[in-house]
Amino acid sequence: MIRPRVIPVLLLQNRGLVKTVRFKDPTYLGDPINIVRIFNDKEVDELIFLDITATAENRPPAFDLLSDITSECFMPLGYGGGIRSMDDIRRLLSLGVEKVILNTAAVEDPALVRTAADYAGSSSVVVSMDVRKGLLGGRYEVLMRNGKKRTGRDPVKHAVAMEKSGAGELFINSIDRDGTMQGYDIDLVRSISAAVSVPVVACGGAGKLQDLADIIKLGGASAAAAGSLFVFQGPLRGILISYPAQADLERILP
User: Fold this and answer.
1) Structural domain that includes position 206
2) Average pLDDT score, the chain
3) Can 130 be counted among the known catalytic residues?
4) From CA 148, how far away is CA 132, in angstroms rounded?
């Protein structure tokens, strides 16, 4: 039986890699090519790159940089950020990106999800959802434009709608847990996983290996994604690119 995937998530800002906390306070990590090479050596399951400023800056993906990244990347690669059209999607796929990740575009132009799925197949189309919980334990809400703009959408209803539109996978990112290393939002992921039949990738909050196991066993996620867990070391959050040994992943994951 194939174990669930464990996926490092790398955030692009100004052509470098950063890591945020609750979508704020980015810490510079280094050159993306160098970090991809490290993950190649560690034989990671899959990589996700998210350009966190492309949409806010109203610009397309940095295709030249992505061409360099895909030429160095030896594992499946997903990319999101600034994707607005089928031209963008076709170009990304031609560069070697295996999964296009739609977030703001999926809210503003849901027909693009269906068109992309018809063109590339549902397995190549991921809808990403940035989710935040209201104050004082209020309800969950989907946000867009890197967590800057409210949509008023319930994440479970949005997930169901995106599956119907053709998304072959859902990427759930908890804004409240991002970079905190305090564990995933299991309730959020469980509610979405129970409502859809496509794979759900959970992100936001992983701080130890047990968190990866918990989100899959308790949250029903198909895969566990993380940023800080794979780029920081120790209480002072020193930068150290890492990935669990395959034997450790086999041991902890169902």
Assistant:
1) 5-252
2) 96
3) yes
4) 11
Contact 167, 123 (CB under 8 A): no
What is the value of pTM for the model shown? 0.97
Catalytic residue among 45, 51, 88, 130: 130
Q: pLDDT of 108-123, one tens digit each?
A: 999 999 999 999 999 9
Which residues, other chains included, contact 136 with Cβ-Cβ below 8 Å and sequence gap of 6+? none
Residues of 162-183 as b/e, b for ≥16 C-beta within 10 angstroms? Answer: bbebbbbbbbbbbbbbbbebeb
User: 149-173: per-residue pLDDT in tens?
Assistant: 999 999 999 999 999 999 999 999 9
Closest CA to 228 of 218, 219, 239: 239
Structural domain count, the chain: 1
Tell me the CATH number at 43.
3.20.20.70
